[in-house]
Amino acid sequence: MMKFKIFWDFDEEEKYLNGMAAQGYIFKKYSIFGFYHFEPGKPQNPNYRIDYRTFRDRKEYDNYIALFEDAGWKHVWGTKNSGNQYFLPMSEKAGTDIFSDRISAAARYKTLYSICLAHVACFICYLSVVLLCSGGNLSGIAFLTPDLWERTGKDFWSAFFFELPFALFRVVPLIFLAVVAIFYCYWGTKARKIYKLSINEQNSHE
Amino acid sequence: MNPEKHLPLTETTFYILLSLLEPGHGYAVMQKAEELSGGRVRIAAGTMYGALDNLLRQKMIEPVLSKDPRRKMYQTTAKGAHVLRLESERLKHMLDIYNRIQGDG
After folding, report:
1. What is the mean pLDDT of residues A185-203?
2. Which of A18, A91, A118, A175 could, after both became Cys, cross-link A72 (CB 3.0–4.6 A)?
3. Within this chain, do residues A67 and A160 fall inside the same structural domain, yes or no?
4. What pLDDT tens digit does each residue of chain B (105 aa) get?
5. Of A31 and B20, which is predicted with more confidence?
6. Distance from C-alpha of A164 to C-alpha of A143, rounded to nearest angstrom
7. Between the CA of residue A135 and those of A33, A127, A139, A141, A168, what are the distances in Å?
8. Which residues of B touch A64 (CB under 8 A)?
9. In this complex, is the C-beta atom of B64 within 8 Å of any C-beta atom belonging to chain A?
């Protein structure tokens, strides 16, 4: 079974996976754009924990998973670049959480925020290149036929429809990337907010 | 760079630097911290990995050759050992003041 869900908060996501397992849906994997894959199983009360990390290389990723396994946590799902890393305790020594202080738990949101920021920066670079190439005129990159917009009647429509697929081909990737960038902007802002909130909470406890 | 700016150390960082005066992998540090603190300090896996990552970036620990292909070994650097000593002096200073005002002597 597949479910579409978007979470901004790791605690909420953990609760969701625990809740699904209680109903007999065992989390198998996560695929991009918010799709959770479940398999039917015996209802249970697991303790999912989520870390957020990407890795330079395979070796570092293996080292990371080995550390968690040594400490009694089974890596349920995640890839080198997935960010979200899902864990379940597999022995007593795991304890109840993968974080022993609030600062390190909050650091996940900081990592998430900087990755979102990097994505947005990439898009801005891409947009600048496109703008530069089109001489600052975005509508110019869609339709290239000279004086298209001055034409009238049948002459205009035939030229317009002839070029429309090419125009879409040029513009759709740009729009798609813009939507993704806006999404990352929003996600990054959320992550930053939760990070600030948990750091402030930490300070008021001291 | 001024080593003072790393002070005060968190409890986690303090025990990692202390444990890694001898080379060891992540889980060995978790065990050693628990042992050294008499079971009081238990560093969880996610916190441990994040702390090692930070210390590597701050050049207070460094990777050393590991026989185990899956587990990286780390060791405290000269800079890390220096920061650790500054921290112990800071703590001792505070303790001395406390004893002077509140102690029995």
Report:
1. 88
2. A91
3. no
4. 688 899 999 999 999 999 999 999 999 999 999 999 999 999 999 999 999 999 999 999 999 998 898 999 999 999 999 999 999 999 999 999 999 998 765
5. B20
6. 8
7. 34, 12, 10, 9, 19
8. 49
9. no
Which amino acid, B69? P
Q: Which residue's structure tokens are 């429509």?
A: A157
Closest residue of A to B42, CA-based?
A100
In a domain, B58, yes or no: yes
Quickly tell me which residue has 């330079």 as its tokens: A56
Q: How far is A103 from chain B (nearest CA, A)?
A: 9
More confident residue, B48 or A171: B48
Domain extent at residue A71: 2-94
Which amino acid appears at position A67 of this protein? L
With an 8 Å Cβ cutoff, are A101 and B71 in contact? no
Which chain B residue has its CA at the smallest distance from A51's CA? B46
A158 and A65, same structural domain? no
Q: In this model, does residue A40 exceed pLDDT 70?
A: yes
- Name residue A75's beta-bridge partners: A87
